[in-house]
Amino acid sequence: MNKKITLFATLLAILLMNACEDVYDHVAAPPQANEQEAEQSVSGFTFTLGAGVTTPLILSEGMLADPTLLETIKTTATPQMAEGATMTFLLEASDTQDFAKVTDLPSVSNQNSAFVTSATLNEAAKSLYGKAPEARKLYLRVSPYIKEGSSSVRIPGQVVLGPVTVTPVGPVIETEYYLIGDINGWNINDLEAYQFSHSGKDVYEDPVFTILVNNVTGYFKIVPKSSKEAASWVGVLGNPVNGNTDLEGDITLAGAQAMRVTEPGWVKITLNMMEYTYTIEIIGEMNLTLYVPGGHQGWNPAEAPTLYSRNFDFKYSGYVYFGTAGTEFKFTSEPGWGGTNYGNGGNGTLSTDGGAGNLSVDEAGIYKIDVDLSGNPLYTMTRTEWGLIGSATAGGWDNSTPMTYNPVTGRWSVTTTLVDGEFKFRANNGWDINLGGPLNNLGYNGDNIPATAGTYTITLDLSDPMAFKATIASALPG
Questions:
Q1: Helix ranges, 245-348 (H)
Q2: Does the pLDDT at position 33 exceed 60?
Q3: How many CB atoms lie under 10 A from the CB of residue 464?
Q4: By the 8 A CB rule, do 393 and 429 touch?
Q5: Edge-to-edge strands of the sheet including 39-42?
Q6: Rounded Cα distance, 234 and 243, in Å
């Protein structure tokens, strides 16, 4: 009981010392463009950054495993406190001075200072910014307490110090990876057809890359973008065991050896570059393509536009142009009439009966066609008109900038002026069908596409159902 009385007497003395000011409002200065001051005061106490964080920290795996505490907050001045009373702290971190986004920063208090580990700072940086190993600024918000024995009382007010510069630990992850091996004669200059797919998101948020390849039987390794561009074997990735036929394992740079596939047919290879691991899924023989022959192209399956099953789930999708209303067509499993052919089964269904009638379109245009053969065969068709939408476009995120289709080139295009910002492609002035992400492999609901100010001719090519593509080219002379 006596300790509690002493503690509250200490706090009362502090409040009386600051009676001329409203200590409950005495917090760090409002957010401003300049860096925080070296010291901040509240209720007569003065705090500064500790010696452990005053210089930029470039963290390493060794530092994360080291339990050594880094002095993070130091008390440089205090009013008179009762004998035996000490300072303790509650710390928070943010990526901005206004602390709109906050993460806790667990700490240990000792001798009127607060200490944290390297691992704690590493997690805070990744929580606020993501996993990329880049220098990050952390602002620290301090709630100080006076502790005496088993009791503690919070000092009114908070201070903000920083920023502290922290580079978190993270593996090297490039934005592109390619397959090289027996499938392409180990030719490092012939990789374009063997690029792994990716969502287009920050690679430290989505480190997974996949590729679907047919007849990859034999040895292979992984080529990152930097090695491809340099046409160099330096940096090429493999695994520790040459000829390894395991369906999963580690990826390594040092002493990289080739993995091996022994089964024929389709194979799906997945890389997790955050974990530096790979998995191989043997799919075998499967028809990934549906052909769409009809009156729009002379009823020749070998030259017909195609639909593709991206997920090996017997669901096919793609875009087909029908230049005339009433055009008839069918689907066929092969580039000839000797495979399974699908005609009109009525009410959105397909029939493999040889006497089934043709399908048809009511209106000319580009149609998104989806066929589901995973159960009873079904299909849907959506006529599309494409445009640009986004902060970089004239209509912002509210109104699409229309694109024009050229049936000769098979591409949508528009020449327009952009401002600095982002944009996407979307169909029919709605969000049901939209494309974003990497220009060479656009995906449905993909990330926004960055743009810089200028006048451009932008094209959208939907002819290859395996990879939708776009180009952005300056429309100005020179």
A1: none
A2: no
A3: 14
A4: no
A5: 39-42, 45-49, 69-77, 113-117, 108-110
A6: 20
Give the pair of three-digit tokens for residue 236. 């090429």
Instruction: Map tokens 């094209």 to a residue.
Output: 459
Which residues sit opposite 453 in a β-bridge?
A: none
Q: How far apart are CA 198 and CA 439, in angstroms?
A: 12
CA distance 38 to 107: 21
Q: How far apart are CA 437 and CA 444, in angstroms?
A: 9
3-state secondary structure at position 255: coil
Contact of 166 with 125, CB cutoff 8 Å: yes
Helix or strand holding residue 436 (H, E): strand 434-436
Place of tokens 């303790």: 88
pTM, entire model: 0.56
Considering the chain, what percentage of its residues have pLDDT values greater than 90? 74
Instruction: Look up residue 381 and give its amino acid.
Output: M
User: Tokens at residue 75, please?
Assistant: 């008390």
Q: Residue 385 is which amino acid? A: E
- Within 10 Å of residue 395's Cβ, how many Cβ atoms? 14
